[in-house]
Amino acid sequence: MSSSYLLERAWVGGAVHDDVLVEIADGRFASVVLTRRNSPLSDGVPSGQRQFHRVPGETARLPGLTLPGLVNDHSHAFHRALRGRTQRERGTFWTWREQMYAVAERLEPDTYRALARAAYREMVAAGYTSVTEFHYVHHRPDGTAYASPNAMGDALRQAAEDAGIRITLLDTCYVSSGFGAPPEGVQRRYSDGDAEAWAARAGDGPAAIHSVRAVPREQLPVFRGRAPLHVHLSEQAAENDACLAAYGVTPARLLHEADLLGPGTTVVHATHLTGDDIELLGTTGTRVCITPTTERDLADGIGPARRLHEAGCPVTIGSDSHAVVDPFEELRGLEMDERLATGERGHWTAAELLAVGTAGRGIEVGAEADLVTLDTSTPRTAGTGADEHTAVFAATAADVSQVVVGGRVVFTRGDEQEIGRELDDAIGALR
């Protein structure tokens, strides 16, 4: 399968270029041609009326600003059912967790697939072309295995395929309610008993440790050599306090002593860190996923994202609980939260933030052919320059006009109402 697009404006090689011709074959970019180099967008012609150089063959024209696909590096698909409900009262992360558990208790493979499919379609419509799913609801409500032990994970894979989004499914180990205590209530659905039993069910492949609370210290060696490996880290100060009480070290130091930090590991949140924690993560090249909209929603706090970046940690973003699904808001959040924390502006450049959002992926020969196009003439984006600053400091998910994954169009304007109905039906089935 082959196709080609003439992109009015596109982020290529760390800069915005006009009239970029891309040819796609077998889901990857076969050719990327700059037909004009950095020509100014100052002719006064609206983007919808601008003419392109004639290109022979079947070439689709994409007006607006086109970016490489954006990466949602942390997702709990079923949390989408909580939006608009958990925000109604005062509380903490821990009171929110009880409401989340109530949804987890009601999931079955068919309802999980329906909800995840709708949530993934919303992600695609927002500009995400890949998702890293942190999956821990493995078993029946009473804790016994399904006839197919990975039925819930299979439901998520099928949901992603249906929605047209790439998925990295992290089979997550969760065997303790807290530092060795047995699982309680709905947590029985999460647990395989111990890490060895989890590994026997999960097999090889992408994995996650739910947290240092949920996997005892003596079981951490099971995860050595696993990559990619993700883990919730220091999301709550209470987690740090409990880890210090149980083991005498911080969660980051605990993972380091277990030889689990490094480029193949991503720690999620990393909100409450010591200077020593930041140095450990940076010197080992450990990746860090920040989820600004969820961390705001749960009152988690503001993590040291810029300090982690400067220490040597590659930074990514995720929508996590899906209180908001908008990659541009997540990227803005990295900068805006730093401003609130420091009282100063200008911590991240737009180019740096796009590199975070795309996880370093680009529109280049050989890369996966994922494209996200922004309408640069909406009330939010008009007059903002139609460049990288438009993407990260002006645009929202509502400005996405088309999404291509692997050369296939998976979202166009007009799909929103169908996605909304699908979400309403899937969430309603869990009430």
Write up this protein:
The chain has 431 residues and is α/β, with parallel strands linked by helices. It folds into two domains: 2-68 and 365-417, Urease, subunit C, domain 1 (Roll); 70-360, TIM Barrel (Alpha-Beta Barrel). The protein is built from 13 helices and 15 strands. It has helices at residues 93-106, 109-126, 151-163, 195-202, 237-247, 251-257, 275-283, 292-297, 305-311, 327-342, 350-357, 388-393, 416-428, and strands at 2-12, 15-25, 28-34, 60-68, 70-75, 128-135, 166-173, 207-209, 229-233, 265-269, 287-290, 315-317, 371-374, 400-405, 408-412. Strands 5-6-7-8-9-10-11-12 form an eight-stranded parallel sheet. Strands 3-2-1-4-13-14-15 form a seven-stranded mixed sheet, covered by helices on one side. Helix 2 (109-126) packs antiparallel against helix 13. The longest helix has 18 residues, at 109-126.
SSE inventory with pairings:
Layout: E1 2-12, E2 15-25, E3 28-34, E4 60-68, E5 70-75, H1 93-106, H2 109-126, E6 128-135, H3 151-163, E7 166-173, H4 195-202, E8 207-209, E9 229-233, H5 237-247, H6 251-257, E10 265-269, H7 275-283, E11 287-290, H8 292-297, H9 305-311, E12 315-317, H10 327-342, H11 350-357, E13 371-374, H12 388-393, E14 400-405, E15 408-412, H13 416-428
Parallel strand pairs: 1-4, 5-6, 6-7, 7-8, 8-9, 9-10, 10-11, 11-12
Antiparallel strand pairs: 1-2, 2-3, 4-13, 13-14, 14-15
Helix pairs in contact: 2-3, 2-13, 7-9, 10-11
